[in-house]
Amino acid sequence: MATRDQSYKAGETKGQTQEKTGQVMEGMKDKAEFAKDKTYETAQAAKDKVSGATQATKEKSTDTAQAAKDKASGATQATKEKTSDTAQAAKDKTHDTSRAAGDRAHETKQNAGGYMDTAKEKVSETAQAARDTAVAGKDKAGNIVGATVEQVKSAAAGAADAVKNTFGMSGDTTNQQGDYNRRD
Predict the structure, then answer these.
(1) Which range among 11-25, 111-125, 147-161, 166-180 shows the weakest confidence by mean pLDDT?
(2) Max Cα separation, the chain?
(3) What percent of the chain has pLDDT over 70?
(4) Biased composition, Polar residues: where in the chain (predicted)?
């Protein structure tokens, strides 16, 4: 059996062990509490950091979206203005071209009218000259025909007289030789 001294030492060791276990337990408890608090603080800091990053990202996205919207709106407005300016320039150019074409057509019409008047005048002058030439030709032809008819009549009368004289049928007995150039 164990002796008293051994029992005492065993009790003393037991007490020391319990005290040491209590101290270790208290130290572990303090360390666990410290670790818990440190973990909570770290988690809270991470949460705050993520929340801040989320807020910054949200603000940056909003700013970027607004800038893109403003830029698109500005580009749309610039495109509208450019399109409007281009359309107006085309409209003005078409109007100017149309006006110039109208003026040119009017000028051409006036020039053509002047040419037509000149052409009518030339045709009239040519027709009058042709009439004058025709009248002169008619008169000359009439004179030639008239003279020719007279010559033929005279020649026929002369031939008739000659034939009558030859056959003695002439009513004029004094002129036996006949006058071939006589005109009746």
Answers:
(1) 166-180
(2) 234
(3) 90
(4) 167-184
Are 128 and 144 contacting, i.e. CB atoms less than 8 angstroms apart? Answer: no
Of 86, 89, 109, residue with least CA distance to 97: 89
Contacts of 179 (CB under 8 A, 6+ apart): 158, 161
Q: How many CA atoms lie within 13 A of 10 on its CB side?
A: 6
**Which position has the token pair 């007995």?**
173
Tokens of 34: 């410290």
| List of residues 6+ apart from 184 with CB closer than 8 A | 153, 154, 157
pLDDT in tens, 128-181: 888 888 788 777 777 777 778 788 888 888 877 888 888 877 665 554 455 555
- Report how far residue 69's alpha carbon sits from residue 134's, in angstroms, rounded to the nearest whole number: 94
Q: What are phi and psi for residue 4, nearest 5 degrees? A: -65, -40
pTM of the model as a whole: 0.34
**In the numeric block, which tokens belong to residue 139?**
């008169």
